[in-house]
Amino acid sequence: MVLIGDGADATRVVFKVVDKYGAERAFADGEVRFEIDGPGIIVGDNPFSLADSGGVGAIWIRTIPNRGGKIRLSAKHSTLGEKIVEINVGPGKAG
To answer: pTM of the entire structure?
Structure first.
């Protein structure tokens, strides 16, 4: 999947806490803090509190107008560690 770098295209990033066997951990707590690098912005709670969400959540990533490249999104938790996803962004159309 490639987003369009027009400032309007976006994607939802869904996350959940699981154990080493992949079983969901509904009673996870703490905060997930997101950092973004590249032609995008985070839309949503940052940091995201897991306490009220059952260990699952989502944020949106929206592109920046007239920029292409690769978005690198990291999610960090104080005890669960860090995960990174990358999202490709194609060039936006000049208006």
So the answer is: 0.89
